[in-house]
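Hey, can you fold this?
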Amino acid sequence: MEVFRAEDLLAGVRVALARGVIGFDAVKHLTLCRIEHRPPRLDLTVYPYLPQAHVATTSAKAYMDLLTGVAS
């Protein structure tokens, strides 16, 4: 079992979010590349079944609407 430092894992997640590749394997690959100081090699054409992630920051109003049950 591998154990990563929190800051390395967080950096891997941030890079994955920026690239739009959310998945265990992608985050692990990006984290290992950071630790080993090597460039990442993610070719998403090899994995056509993976959905493209579209991530955005949630607005405070949208979050409060969810909590109160208001439809936007």
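Oh, and this one too while you're at it.
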Amino acid sequence: MAEQIQTLVEQPLDWACLFSEAAENSITPLLERQLCAVVPEAIPPEYLAQLKSASRANTLRCLYMVAELNRILELFESHGIPPIPYKGPVLAQQAYGDITLREFEDLDIILRQRQLPQAHEILLGMGYQAKFPWILSPGAAASLVPGEYNYRSLERRVMVELHTEMTLRHFPVVPCLDHFSQRLIPVRLGGRDVRTFCAEDALPILCIHGSKDFWERISWVADISELIQAHPQLDWDAVRQCAESLKAQRMLYLGLTLAGRLLGAPVPREIFESAHADAVVSAVAGEVEARLLSREFTPLDAAGRFHFRRRLVPGALAGWRYAIRLTVVPTEEDWMMVRLPAPLAPLYIALRPLRLLRKYGWTSRRAARPST
């Protein structure tokens, strides 16, 4: 990334716009590290002070979030729940080598669906409040599974998201957590070892996450680049095998292509050539790159979102099935639109496409980047 920074400052810069874009893409700490390491003399004093202030605030927030994550993990483990923390501070340490170099807004923890009721009670006992407490109530339909089980603590100003094999609906196939658990590795976090996905598994999972949100933040591309650089001995055969087991080969190639093109990530030549040989990957990567580098952010409309997802799973039938599933499977926003009794829950399948059309339309009218 240093070469990109050097090239950037050799041009006339709108520093206010640069910092605004960095904030929107959640890369302010990373930008500060690169600018101060490569061209500190090029930064106007007032913007340097602003950059350092934002980074200090992020550092304090990161340290507090790490302490809270360790507290939650210890409670889960003491109750026999084996958690898998990922993204957030765990990824910051695993990929960036420094928890303060990656901005994160919440704490993500994966566990088994059968362990969710117990985890729910633990978080409530810690003072967290469930965003949708009725989901786990006896009268709720079993089919109502959210995108994540969301908990907030107003006192701590912390949000926790619990994920299970059932909530990870953007995976082309249901992930086998028992299989992943056999390859977990320790990452040192706040003086404590926490077990998370090995780099070979984390890379495809991160590419699925970026694809889920249409790669609308540069920070998600940076995650891929930094993870590769932090693991020069990466077993690329294992990476591809993991992606294949999840039917996410094209999502992996898309993430690697973006990381290579935009940030110069050291993707092996044979991997990059395989990705480039997929015409769909090349086309979608070009579309994402154009949106990311555009001065006026233009998100995808409803039709564009469907088309994007349909192309990310190889095979015409498989791609259509994947896109249709994500279009009709209800989420929290659908339940908030109207509350249906458990016997009528299947009607949410009909309501969801209508809500998506209402929210995104057939033309791109929104101008805000995603919040998560």
